[in-house]
Structure prediction request, 403 residues.
Amino acid sequence: MRRVVQFAAVLSLAASAVMAGTVIDAVKVKSLKGLKCGTKLIKKNAKFYKVEVYPQTTLHMNDKKANEINKNAKGKVIEVAALTDGKQIAILMRWPDKSKDIFSGYKSDIYPDGYAVQFASDASDPQKLPYIGMGSDGRPVAIYLRKAYDIVYEPNGYGDVAHQVNPHNTNYFGKELKKFEKEVKKEGLKTYQRAFVSEGFRSMTEIKDNSINYRTDMHYVNKKGMWGGMVVRPLDDEYAKPVKGEYAIAVAVWDGKELQRDGLKRLSSWLAVRLPGASNKALEKVVTEKVTGDVANGKKQFEANCASCHNNRDFHNAPLYMAPDLSNIGGQATAAYIKESILNPNAVVVPGYNRNAHPNFSWYSVDKKGHRTSTMPPFNFLDEKTINDIVAYLQTQKAEVEK
Ligand code: HEC
Prediction:
């Protein structure tokens, strides 16, 4: 009997090691100057951690086909690493994607692949991290976005890019072709990279002045069918700083082939990135917390209290768009966030209300000062065990992961 018990204990330990969220150790290197995807410095030093990303099913777009693909999309395992030279932090990502989708000026029906890294601007209270989907009122995030764009060069500035970027258009360029190609290389390479401060899906502000200092690079490895991407930014700036040497970050990837764009993407949960020698146990605990509870009872309680508004993998009877679909909440939200959502819906009011996609139900009301109040009632009358069981149940709500 004793042996059986021991065996069970070992098993559950192993399970929690796999299930837990991720703490990523940033590796110290001499310099991040000129860092690009695929360089030796990365191969030699980067320590990649497996991170699961799940389709964001909370929001719906005005594109039936895209919504349908998204609904059935699986999760992916991607890899994330961090490097630091004591002045800057580099977040490196690599992820499988069998099709390389690049946006070109003359094929505008293609949605590009891409990625983003999101930093919580203020992670000093890990119980109250920003809303994972691009921050929320009073809980801003800094987002660095990169999309796969082809070279677009407009020598005549008329916007008829189709005639200009195709080198076979010798009618247009004749003998100038060589010169043209040289100039495309030199001037035309405008990478599509953007930085935002965001307090929610509908309140993103692109930072266009020079107050933000960052760079990105992205590279496709044909042989492996994989993208690599990176973001390098200062260790500390007005947009995000480490707390006790750690950042809360989240990563997202877009697959153009699956018509993903804007809010349709695969997104991780909050991850902790730890600078060398640092320790922020409170943050690590929040990002790795796996609630143990009575999942079967949680499901029953969910059906009784929540399923009239929320659909998820088990329940589909709520009117469409009545409330966020929770089918992937377990892959994206921390236990602390789910608990807060139940006890105090107004703490984070999901800002993704799309009038066109959700014509009949408002997720919140807005007062004269622009303050949002959730239409979800607080469930603070439920006892602690019931809430715990619901959280444990919701942590199981996530798509199967692609093998
Ligand atoms: C009357 C309808 C209604 C009921 C009942 C309801 N909710 Fe909600 N819920 C909403 C709406 C609307 C939102 C979006 C606005 C917001 O964030 O508060 C929401 C948001 C949430 C979120 C955040 C979703 C996200 O994408 O981040 C969670 C988690 C949640 N609810 C869980 C629950 C649980 C668990 C229950 C049952 C104990 C429940 N809800 C009961 C309407 C409801």
About this structure: Residues 58, 305-306, 308-310, 323-324, 329, 333, 338, 341-342, 345, 348-350, 363-364, 374-376, 379, 390 surround heme C (CB under 6 Å). The two ends are 37 Å apart (CA to CA).
